[in-house]
Each structure stands twice: as structure tokens, then as C-alpha cells.
Amino acid sequence: MRQCSNQADLGQQCTRLSKWLVMRTWEGDEILVGHDVDSGDSHISPAMASFNCRLRQARAQCGQRYVLLGPPDRDAHAGYAWQCWMAINERVECFDITEVVLAGQTSVGHRG
What we know:
By secondary structure, the chain is α+β, with helices and mostly antiparallel strands. Helices cover about 15% and strands about 35% of the residues. The chain has helices at about 75-90, 100; strands spanning about 1-5, 15-25, 30-35, 40-45, 50, 55-60, 65-70, 95.
């Protein structure tokens, strides 16, 4: 984890993800899936509370901050980690909502 670099988050720890996607579970939780560039491992976030498309930053409901590096990507390792997470958490269906989030057509963390 690294220190966040923008003024609003100065001093907070961030997880930096590359090859990332935004997934939505059937229950409505939005979750980041990607490659943690600092640890070198695949990473699945807790449910998200907010997402800033312009800054490519997100915040989980637990307060963890994320910085998204580069474009979205359907990385095979992250995909495998996501499939394992779904099996462990007994989730049957999910949706890739990355493009609609980036287009501003949905609000992450806000159910209506």
C-alpha cells in the first residue's frame, strides 16, 4: 500500500490497482477486481462506497482507498481470483459494470 497522492486523501493508505474492473454482484454490491501493483497479487475489494471516474479513485464502504492505474482490463489472474471469490462467498451471478461506471451511467455505492 502507498500513501494517497491527492490533497483530499493526503496521508491515507491506498491500494493501487492495475488491470482492474468494476463488478456488481446480484445483491447489488460493487466490487473492484484487479492487480495490486505493490504486492503483485490479484485483489478483490470490499463493497465500494464511491467511485471518482475523473480521478480514477474509489473508496470501499470500510474506508479503504483505491487508485486505479491504466485502463480497465480483463486480466486472467484477476478473473480467476474473482471466480474463486464468488465460489467461496456462494455468489452465483455477477455483472461487469466497468464501462457503464466510466460512462457515468451508474453510481457506485448508491442503490436506488
